[in-house]
Structure formats: C-alpha cells, structure tokens
Amino acid sequence: MRTDTRIVNSWNEWDTLQEVVVGTAENACFEPTEPGHRPQERGLSEPRPFPTGPKPRELNEKAEEELTGLVSLLESQGVTVRRPAPRDYSVPLKTPTFEVENQYCAVCPRDVMITLGNEILEATMSRRSRYFEYEAYRSLVYKYWDEDPLMTWSVAPKPSMADDMYRQDFWTWPLSKRHEEMHNFEFCVTQDEVVFDAADMARMGKDIFVQESMTTNRAGIRWITRHLEPKGFRVHPVHFPLDYFPSHIDATFIPLRAGLVLTNPERPINSGEEKLFLANDWEFVTAPQPLTGNDEMPRYCQSSKWVSINVLSISPSKIIVEEQEKPLQDLLCSLGFEVFPLPFRHVYEYGGSLHCATWDVRRDGVCEDYFP
Ligand code: ARG
Predict the structure, then answer these.
(1) Residue 65 is part of which domain span?
(2) Domain annotation covers residue 23
(3) Under a CB-based contact definition with an 8 Å cutoff, are residues 199 and 227 in contact?
(4) Residue 172, helix vs strand vs coil
(5) Res. 1 pLDDT band, cuts 50 70 90
(6) What is the Cα–Cα distance from 256 to 106, expressed in whole angstroms?
(7) What are the residues whose beta carbons fall under 8 Å from the beta carbon of 331, sequence distance 6 or more?
(8) Where is the composition biased (Basic and acidic residues) (predicted)?
(9) How far, in Å, CA of 81 to CA of 197, rounded?
C-alpha cells in the first residue's frame, strides 16, 4: 500500500495535472427522451422523433479517435491517463420508480464524478438514462481506494427519478414565460429531492461554486453544502439567468488560473454574485464567439456552441483548446498561456468538449483560500 504520496488530490481546475480519467465513446447510445430531457435533432424543418438505441458506429469511432488523441497529448505532458470500464449502454433500466429504454455513454466523466480535495464524490445525477453511469468508474474508484489510504469516497443519495420529480410543462414554456421566470431558477427538476450533476460545480480551492440548473436543484446544493462545509469548504450557489436551459457550469464560467475566470458573453453571472470575485481581485475575461453557430453543431448534439470554451488546463500556464477555436486560442495566448490545440469536434456530438470528457483525480497543490 502506498502511503508516501496521495493519489486522490485535486483542489481546483488549473493546478498541474498528474492523473486524469478520459471518457470513452465506446458503446455510446442516443440519449433517450425522458421527463428530465427532450433531445432534439438539429437542422430539421419538421421535427421527428429522436433516434434511440446505439449511436451509429462511425460517430462513436470518430469521437473515440479524438478522445485517444487527448490521451496521447496528456501522456506526452507526463499525465497518467485512465479510461472508464466498458459497459453496454443499450441495456434498458427498470427500477421500482422508473423505466428507461436505453442508457447513454461514458464520454463525459465530469458530469458524474468529482474530486474535491482528497475525496471522490459520485453525483446523484438528474436523468434516468445516466442513473448507473458511475458504474463505468467503480473499478477505478476501488483501485484508488485500495492504493490511497487517505482518500475518502462519498456517494450522494440517489433520487427516485419518478415522474413527479420532474416538472413536465417546463419543456413547453413559451419564450415569454421563460423570460418571466428567469430569476426564479425553476427548471425541469422540482425541489423535493436532492438532485445534482457533478459538472455543475467549479472548484477554486476552499471555495466551490455550484450552478443552479436543469441538472442541479436547490436541494442538491443544500446537500453539497452540508456535506462539504464541515470539511472546511465554502459552497456558493451561482446563477446565469440568461441561460434558459442551464446544465453544467463548464461552458459558462471557467476558472483558468488563480484570479482569472473565462466568462460567456451571452450568460453573465447573476447581478451581485460577481462581488466576491471582484472583492478578491479576480478578473473576468470575456470569451470570443465560438467558430460555429448553434445551427452548425453536430446533428445530435444537445449542447450549445459554447462547448467551444470547455477548455482543459494542464497547468496554470498550459491549456488545451479545440483546434478550430482560433479566436479563443489567441485570447489565451495573449493572457500568457501556452495553448495546445486539439481536434475535438466529433466529441461535441456527445454534449461536451475537453473539460466534460475528463475527470481529474490528481493535480499538484493544496487547498488554498483564494477568497479570504
Ligand atoms: N449545457 C452546456 C451548453 O450547452 C454544455 C455543458 C457541457 N458540459 C458538460 N460537463 N457536459 O452550453
């Protein structure tokens, strides 16, 4: 048993990366239509039902090729890379409270798993098809658990995902109603059960910022707060009222290094929530427009063009950016970063980019207080 160094240790999104899990597109399926999710195919004049079951092999292969490219780049930078265990996502699920025709994939470990210092936390998840996604990472968690006696492991309470956990009419609200409701932060998940996806959290040392969203409700944030604050963290709910379909913070508000956050010009932070940053001399830098518009995103992609800003830090001065996103690369260069461009657009198909497709297990560094 290793006791000399910690294996599980990551306090923020930017310290030097030492060990990471990169997702896989193997066996990926279409995301099913369910109360918490209404996937839509792009570019149709007449809507038609979203496909179900396994995604076409060539889509999965193209994404896998790019994910393998990310593995090689990280390894060339001295990072240890692990991959999820293979699983069959075409298997339907039936629990006492819900049924779903197939599961999704393990392209985005970020959505499910989070390292908070020396703890690994498995999120509750918010959609039926992703309920068992943690299984792809269990053998790794056991490996870390066996090798790192100082690591702690927590599993958040699984919600029922029954029909009444969701607000069905959310999906048909007209834009005017969304506009009226935008400061109420009520989305498709109700407030009765604890619900959160790991990717709604941004880690900045002692301070964890959690976005209230379609995938994280207020009960979820309360659970995270009560779980983390006794361990010395401070948890801050954050909101981006102009994002009518918010899910996962990492295409909206991305810390790049201590004192610097990349922000989305179409999703400003809720008025007042910027104060903690400004009072501590943090700077916000506005991201340039993505290279492709929402209409040119991959056909089955359910995320917006803003996955363009879903960058992955190798260290406080080295950062991986999607190959075609030149304006963002130039901005980051001008801020002193060494930029590593990497083709990743086929992974967009699965709703995320470089940050989503990874889960950092170890970065160097300790818990710092960036907001004293
Ligand atoms: N919902 C975000 C958007 O459309 C994408 C977030 C992707 N992040 C992730 N961890 N899967 O802009």
Answers:
(1) 3-116+127-150+249-363
(2) yes
(3) no
(4) helix
(5) very low
(6) 25
(7) 285, 287, 288
(8) 34-45
(9) 23
Is residue 7 in some structural domain? yes
d(CA 157, CA 122): 9
18: in domain: yes
The sign of the dihedral angle between the CA atoms of 343, 345, 347, 348 is positive
Q: What is the pLDDT of residues 272-308, one digit of tens each?
A: 999 999 999 999 999 999 999 999 999 999 999 999 9
CB distance 22 to 70 below 8 Å: yes
Structural domain includes residue 165: no
Number of domains the chain contains: 1
Which of 307, 310, 353 is the pocket-test mutation for ligand 1 (most atoms within 8 Å of CB)? 307
- Looking only at the bridges linking them, the beta strands covering 283-286 and 152-155 are unpaired
CATH number at residue 352: 3.75.10.10
248 CB within 6 A, ligand 1: yes
The complex's ipTM works out to 0.97
Please name every residue paired with 236 in a beta bridge, in sequence order, or none if there are none: 209
Q: Ligand 1: distance of its center to the CA of 321 in Å?
A: 15
Token pair listed for 116 = 């908070």
Residue located nearest, by CA, to atom 7 of ligand 1: 352
